[in-house]
């Protein structure tokens, strides 16, 4: 007959990870500044004449738009943190959207 460990020795399930998310606080300033820097980098890359570099810039910007929208959605729930950095990110997002859609 196989040996089965008694229930007192078994590891407990991690109930704290099931369906519960802790509130981590407002979005950090480094997140906003990182997104703004990435937008500027994407715009610089799209301005280059090399086809691959230009395509890399467009790809970066296309990936950043939904990510930034998601960060703003989370910021509405948790708080914006630094308002000036959030406004800078919003301005860079608006500039990219205006550039590509108009």
TrEMBL record:
Where is the sequence biased in composition, kind Basic residues?
8-20
Which key words are in the record?
A: Membrane, Transmembrane, Transmembrane helix
What domain of life? Answer: Bacteria
State if Transmembrane helix is listed as a keyword. yes
Q: Where is this region: Disordered?
A: 1-22
Q: Where is the chain membrane-spanning?
A: 27-45, 51-73, 85-101
**Protein name per the record:** Uncharacterized protein
Please give the organism.
Kribbella pittospori
Q: What taxonomic ancestry is recorded?
A: Bacteria, Bacillati, Actinomycetota, Actinomycetes, Propionibacteriales
